[in-house]
Amino acid sequence: MPLLSIVIPAYNEGPTIHRILDKVKSVKLIANVGKEIIIVNDCSKDDTETAIKNYQAENTDIKISYYAHQVNMGKGAALHTGIKNATGDFVIIQDADLEYDPEEYNVLLKPMIDGFADVVYGSRFMGGNPHRILFFWHSIGNRWLTMASNMLTNLNLTDMETCYKLFKREIIQGIQLEEKRFGFEPEVTAKISRVPKIRIYEVGISYYGRTYEEGKKIGWKDGFRALYCILKYNVFKK
Predict the structure, then answer these.
(1) 75: nearest Cα among 232, 226, 238, 224
(2) Which of 65, 116, 168, 197 is the most exposed place for a label (fewest CB within 10 A)?
């Protein structure tokens, strides 16, 4: 039976992490694909660890692996830990917040299961799925970063910064990842684009964005870091 590894980086998500885990657990995957959940706690200051361990104890019918960083290292570092420990045929990134809907795993899995794709990106900017209306400049920034990345990778993505990225495990584990914070997206896109004969697909997904008051963590400084990483991994370290 094929297996999907779901990598969830978590930082101060104690009050709500059970909700995303419930969603991940309940989704029924196509083609009889199984699930393993890999949670990486990036040294949260709240009760995230307690919430995760309680959930593990109460849900022994699904495989949940838990890893904890002893110091806060950043989202990218948490993803590195999760990806390294994945054992599935496929690996998908899932934020611990409620901005992305696990019910759409099947939308991303289909081109891979059908034998067309090695990597699938879920785009918030294509298709007719629901999108919460939030920040104008945030959306403009995402589009500009995607365009800058496309110019240097020669890809034609609409949403390079999306959380939902699905990889064949051997491909993502074969890439040496360096960025420990929010530079993961442009770095992995640059490096994936250079894999020989890689087949990258993009599908439309919904987006239930959070405000900063609701816990959104990315800001304008992360946008400048992303631009730096686009140049770093496409020009200076190509």
Answers:
(1) 226
(2) 197
CA 87 to chain centre: 17
Contact residues for 230 (Cβ-Cβ < 8 A; gap 6+): 145, 148, 149, 152, 186, 190
Rounded distance between C-alpha atoms, residue 176 and residue 160, angstroms: 19
How many residues are there in the chain? 238
* pLDDT tens digit at each of 238 positions of the chain: 899 999 999 999 999 999 999 999 999 999 999 999 999 999 999 999 999 999 999 999 999 999 999 999 999 999 999 999 999 999 999 999 889 999 999 999 999 999 999 999 999 988 767 666 566 767 787 889 999 999 999 999 999 999 999 999 999 999 999 999 889 999 999 999 999 999 999 999 999 865 445 445 556 577 778 889 999 999 877 6
